[in-house]
Amino acid sequence: MNQRIAPGEYASQESAQHASTVRLTAAQALVRYLAAQRVASEDGSGRTEPLFGGVFAIFGHGNVAGIGEALYQHRHELPTLRAHNEQAMAHSAIAYAKAHFRRRMMAVTTSIGPGATNLVTAAALAHVNRLPVLLLPGDIFVSREPDPVLQQIEDLHDGGVSANDALKPVSRYFDRIVHPAQLLTALPRALRVLTDAALCGPVTLALPQDVQAMAWDYPASFFTPRLVTFHAPAPIQTEIDAALTQLHRAKRPLIVAGGGVLYSRASHALQTLAASRGIPVAETQAGKGSLAWDDPLNVGALGVTGSPAANELARDADCVLAVGTRLQDFTTGSNSLFANAHVIGVNANAFDALKHDGLAVRADARQALAALNDELINWRADANWTAHAQRLANEWRASVERLTHAPQERNCLPYDADVIGAVQRSSSRSYTEDIVVCAAGTLPAELHKLWRAGQPGAYHVEYGYSCMGYEIAGGLGAKLARPDREVIVMVGDGSYLMMNSEIATSVMLGAKLIIVVLDNRGYGCINRLQQACGGAPFNNLFDDCAQGPLGAPRIDFASHARSLGAQAEHVANVAELEAALQRARASSRTYVVCIDTDPARTTEEGGWWWEVAVPEVSARAAVREARERYEEHVAERGGRAQAAEPDESAADGDDEPGNA
What we know:
Elements: E1 2-4, E2 21-25, H1 26-36, E3 37-40, E4 48-50, E5 52-57, H2 67-73, E6 80-82, H3 86-99, E7 105-110, H4 114-117, H5 120-129, E8 133-139, E9 173-176, H6 183-194, E10 202-208, H7 209-213, E11 215-219, E12 226-228, H8 237-249, E13 253-257, H9 259-263, H10 267-277, E14 281-283, E15 298-301, H11 308-316, E16 319-323, H12 329-332, E17 342-347, H13 350-353, E18 359-362, H14 365-375, H15 383-404, H16 416-425, E19 435-438, H17 443-450, E20 459-461, H18 470-481, E21 487-492, H19 493-498, H20 502-509, E22 514-519, H21 524-532, H22 557-563, E23 567-571, H23 574-586, E24 591-596, H24 621-642
Parallel strand pairs: 3-12, 5-6, 5-7, 7-8, 8-10, 9-10, 13-14, 13-16, 14-15, 16-17, 17-18, 19-20, 19-21, 21-22, 22-24, 23-24
Antiparallel strand pairs: 1-12, 2-11, 3-4
């Protein structure tokens, strides 16, 4: 899988490299192997750079003596970065890979016990989003002589189980290294998973602390610098032919662009196919930015958080070309949105290509799109359909302009669209150079609809796992990957409170972020969902929570951010926000701007039904009414799926937006 390259860049390596074997501890061998992996530079210059941008580490017993000492030896070839929370540093590593479109990545090392289990949430996030990260948690003693050691989990029925086994379900490859020689097979396997489009996801190598310190005679050739080859399947002609047959029958096709378009660097191939064949393009959360926001055939966000243009076209399409997407429920409107269309799934992973009963094309997105366009020589979408899509796209762009430039009413709190507009207007350059980072709450819905992404990578929203707490840590990873870009983290007060410590890391590393905190005093998104399901406002907004005699705290987020080393201020309105953002852009260190926002208001335009089960039995009339509406939606979905004529059973598109 690897092609050797000349080790000229490693002239300073000790002469032992040229011997037939070199005696190293397992930890030293692991670190040296990671440092030797190279990747072609993204600038096309022909240079190479390290595959691993560094290792985030929080040391403790179980990794400080073994891998910690090895990292110190190779700190110049493989930088070690200190963080403040294991989950957060793994988020940063994942975001680094996402910002590099999976062409570069990072590793993470922790102690045993809570350090290791803190990785589980981040591993699940990487697994869902198909993003590479190498997890290196310390583990218990293989010898078992000092058992039970501090923080050891003891299973009463399995003596071989440790806390790290919790990482197995959320790893694409898991191995426990119980002898130094096992690295000779485990590391190439790990690297294959990390660099294969079909397999990509988190890899866990559990490292027992006694094995980390064991020495073994490794082949010197194992550490020869290598140029990594990224793997993605080429299209199979029979599958392309089947897709062509389906497309030739279509009059109203729609392309759904998922994250695989970005990771395969297929934006140009996508734009060429869409323009040549008159096919409108809708974008998932992971795929937003695949086409420039002002491309005539970009009809915007799709699904539960989608634009009216994209959802109307998805409702009426007779063929959906789903490229590089998992087709999760927010994209498909809980499987109600494409009920009238034949789906062609183009994906490097057959598991994803087959979803929604799709006709599978298991292939790299860029190669598959180019192959389809080359062979669709005399075919175009119906001209009326293309014109209709362009008209809807233009109308939606005008709506976005109106929504993000609306004057703020006196004595009314702004809502997310007002803040998004202010952020985009604040750029002295084209705001398409900014990278916006977000993950959970109301903001991903508003950003999916309203953020104008002008180039691939400008939109960095983690919504596969919708993980509160990813935002600031993810922003740090994106900034480390793209230090020349302004990285703007947009985060609600709930997510900020859940995980904010990497503000201090960003200051320590000189990785400047602009963080905009929208304070609606609780979990506003779930509060709205709770009431949409008939529930009473309860335990979400501060005002609706159990409280002691002092009541709910009034949190000063700006003062908190300053205590972590950032510059920060609180602003009273959108005009003050725009002025503060200018100061933030001029600052050389992380800058936090906080603004109070309306917890109830969202953008009414767009959206689609999202299935959230409502109780069949309740003493509350509001819940019973919500249950009736729920059953109507479920029945409507079933009716659309069984309709003989697609247009006759099309939904009206006026369902609850369900922003969650």
